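Weekly puzzle thread! Below is a chain. First person to post its structure in token form gets bragging rights.
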Amino acid sequence: MNVADCYRVLELRSGASLDDIKVAYRRLARQFHPDMSAGDQRSQDKFIEITAAYKFLLNRINGSEADLWPSSPPPAAKPAKPPRPVSTHTQAVRKAVQIQTDPSLSPLDNELKRTSYHQLQQLLRTQKFPRAIALVEGLARRLPKDLEVMQWQAIVYQQWGRQLVRDRQPDKARLYLKKALQTDPHNRSLWAEVEKDFRSIERHC
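Winning reply:
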């Protein structure tokens, strides 16, 4: 996608002013924000797309990442619950993920990856696992051959599986832990974490 596509995504005419771009983003972001459309995959995909288009246009206009976000972010439907403590093992798995610019992708898709990565981090920190899964699965459909996205998807499955172990839902936990290994079968660090989770199931469930 190019600059013209970004204006189209934001429902603007080419060459719209910076203020018009911000107003359009606020309007569309409120409409398609995940908190306002829980369970609607099309809305979640649209939110990712308009966010990437907005940031791409601002980068082109400003030449930097300053003031990328509107001063009034889209409202959340409900306040987030306080996150539970995150284990050092979980942090180690997340820190292993690095964002790289892929020259084979369009600038918009690279921006989409970067934006989605930061959204995933926030969703994992607040333990909103179903939303994280919806986000990463949508990204994987858009970029099915991207190895980084595959790794992120596997990590999200593993983190949700670990939470299900804590919640004493062993059958569902096994399902997502297996999905994690199937998604990124050559990730040794992931295998080590999943093995710990399976041992926890055997001990406590």
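Puzzle host: Confirmed. Bonus trivia for everyone else. The chain is about 65% helix and 0% strand.
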